[in-house]
Amino acid sequence: MTAQPNKAIAAIRSLIYYLVFYPFTIVYSTFCLLIGRFLSFETRFKVFTVINYSYIAWLRLCCGVRLDVKGLENLPKDRAYVLVANHQSEFETIFLLTMVRPQCIVLKKELLDIPFFGWALAMLEPIALDRSQRRGALKQLLTQGKARLEAGRPVVIFPQGTRVPVGEPGRFNKGGAMLAASAGVPVVPLAHNAGTCWPGKGFIKYPGVVSVEIGEPVETQGQSVDQVHDAAIGWLLAKMDEQLEN
């Protein structure tokens, strides 16, 4: 009987969150579309994604979702890299844009068709994959990803390809390891439990702590794609299990 009032309160708080989130997103995206063409990529990225800090602060204030991040020292400072993370909700897509700056994110092409938000997102030069064309999508990832890495931009990938519920590992593809190996850059694994507070495809946000942990870079020199993938994803899966137990 006590769970229902808590869920009801969480639902009300989530509604209030979205009543600010969506109008603010539309207005800010419109502003970004108007000024984006006049800015360099680095400045455009900073301006476009500054709103993400507000999203996270509002989420904490309105829904009681806090953040605990460990391992920031493992992010390479002097070279590009491929960051691979598990995918549970929208939270990590918001948060990672505040942590890796600037970056190139790999996403599904249809996101760019969302009015205002998607149009502004396209100006951040993501790698937008058509998931119905698997062979072409891999070629696009390797070609465009290598170009972004050579320009000094880290590439962020969700190897599961879609949001996976908490407690389910899903299937991790090898695209991130293939890209890193072909470009000669390290893979940095990142594990989180954002789905416990912000369930994927769910409306209600639950108060709690989102734990984010960044692993040590997995070097690709002298390693096969399978070795790089197994090392990065092996660490990620073990950390996901640890977060689930806690």
TrEMBL record:
Record carries keyword Zinc-finger: no
Q: In which pathway does it act?
A: Lipid metabolism
Residue ranges the record marks as coiled coil? none
- Record keyword Hydrolase present: no
In what residue span(s) does the Phospholipid/glycerol acyltransferase domain sit?
81-195
Q: Name one GO molecular function term.
A: acyltransferase activity
Q: Which residues cross the membrane?
A: 15-36
Extent of the signal sequence:
none
Keywords, in A-Z order: Acyltransferase, Membrane, Transferase, Transmembrane, Transmembrane helix
**Per its record, how is this protein called by name?**
Lysophospholipid acyltransferase family protein
Tell me the lineage of the source organism: Bacteria, Pseudomonadati, Pseudomonadota, Gammaproteobacteria, Oceanospirillales
